[in-house]
Design goal:
Aspartate Aminotransferase, domain 2; 7-stranded mixed sheet; 408 residues; 39% helix
């Protein structure tokens, strides 16, 4: 089966616009179901949780339903392994604070030069407590991370390795399961930033064995909200970030100081409803989880064709430097495609594209260390076109036609 784009686009009212949205790695359009859920929560369940009265009990049930559904999106074993927060940046800051008690002076953390600053900055904060932070450098020839380089950094003092599932500049999928097994074999924990991965492929934290895994729901078709998976044994060990009388076993509330946003947590459950419905069209009798996986199979196929079309155009230009894999048929990349054009500044390209009502972006995308390594400053950053499954072939044709006018 192929993706039913009529159904897909009908679920995103904002797509009824003269603009083509191709800055999806910065934030996707929101599902109608999420907005409906948020409205429902405000109009029917807008009371504080924890009360004995019936509306409070109903509100708690709705909030818990949102957490349960998002746990299915992660394929977590328990809904209590899911922590909600306003963004991945905030959640990883919370995580680093909650891990402080497990580190001693001289312990080591490894971060990468491929990551968004979200998965670097919070770990550098641990240097205040005497933790040593090392950098796992990206290979500048392949634009990938190599385990051989990581091996040189690991020691018996290594407590955690933080890396990205997909770079929001490079677009290549890192082999999380392989990396995790290697790191665990050396006695360290794993923290993965999946913001640029989760909109494009099925997440499976149980299969991969990761300790911590986070992504932003507003970049995965939902509201401005985010979720962090903490494997249960790790969750129980984390320090409490909430009131002093919350013990380590009060999960996941101890990781949600001030409480998670109730309406956005409930609203986010519609992401799962949508994916289940999408997958059921190819897998009628599947479980919710099986239908999510079937949905992402359809999404991957469609996005690969979108990406292939754009990469073919860019690859045929003799003035274009594509960052990452340039083979559009290679499913080891997502359609987050960054490039520079010889003799042109990226900001000027994007400003010119604005006139064609096509939304793309330029810059370092908060992956400043990677941008500096790739020498993107000379172009005022890279141009990034980030497609997702609700984009169409017609939109990509329009994009290419507009790029032709702007670049030539």
């Amino acid at each position: 089966m192929t993706l039913d784009l009529n159904f897909v686009r009908s679920q995103f009212p904002a797509l009824d616009s003269e603009w083509a949205f191709m800055d999806n790695a910065g934030g996707t359009q929101i599902l109608k179901g999420c907005v409906d859920n948020i409205n429902e929560y405000y109009y029917k369940n807008n009371v504080q949780l924890g009360g004995s009265y019936e509306p409070s009990q109903i509100a708690a049930k709705a909030f818990n339903e949102g957490r349960r559904k998002i746990s299915t999106l992660f394929n977590a074993k328990s809904a209590d392994e899911i922590v909600f927060g306003p963004s991945t940046t905030v959640l990883l800051q919370f995580l680093s604070k909650s891990l402080v008690g497990q580190f001693n002076k001289g312990d080591e953390v490894i971060v990468t030069t491929m990551d968004h600053e979200t998965n670097i900055g919070p770990w550098l904060e641990l240097e205040k407590w005497g933790v040593i932070v090392k950098f796992w450098d990206i290979n500048l020839d392949t634009h990938t991370l190599h385990l051989s380089d990581l091996k040189k950094l690991l020691s018996d003092k290594t407590k955690l390795v933080a890396f990205t599932h997909v770079s929001n500049i490079v677009g290549t999928i890192n082999p999380v399961k392989e990396f995790t097994r290697f790191i665990h074999d050396h006695g360290a924990m794993v923290c993965v930033d999946a913001v640029a991965y989760a909109p494009h492929r099925a997440v499976d934290v149980s299969e991969w064995g990761v300790d911590f895994y986070a992504f932003s729901l507003y970049k995965t078709f939902g509201p401005h909200h985010a979720a962090l998976y903490c494997r249960m044994d790790r969750m129980l060990e984390l320090d409490n970030l909430y009131h002093y009388f919350y013990g380590k076993d009060k999960i996941p509330a101890k990781m949600e100081p001030g409480n998670a946003n109730y309406e956005l947590s409930y609203g986010s459950g519609a992401i799962v409803d949508y994916l289940v419905e999408l997958g059921s069209r190819a897998n009628e009798n599947g479980t919710d989880r099986e239908n999510i996986e079937a949905a992402f199979d359809l999404i991957t196929d469609h996005e690969t064709r979108l990406g292939s079309m754009l990469l073919s155009y860019l690859g045929n230009r003799n003035d274009c430097n594509i960052i990452g894999i340039d083979d559009g048929n290679n499913t080891s990349r997502v359609p987050t495609i960054s490039f520079t054009i010889k003799g042109k500044l990226s900001d000027q390209i994007c400003l010119a594209m604005d006139k064609h009502k096509i939304g793309i972006r330029f810059g370092d995308f908060h992956a400043r260390r990677l941008s500096d390594l790739l020498l993107l400053n000379q172009f005022n950053g890279a141009v990034r076109i980030s497609l997702t499954h609700y984009n169409t072939m017609d939109e990509v044709e329009r994009l290419i036609s507009s790029l032709d006018q702007v670049l030539n």
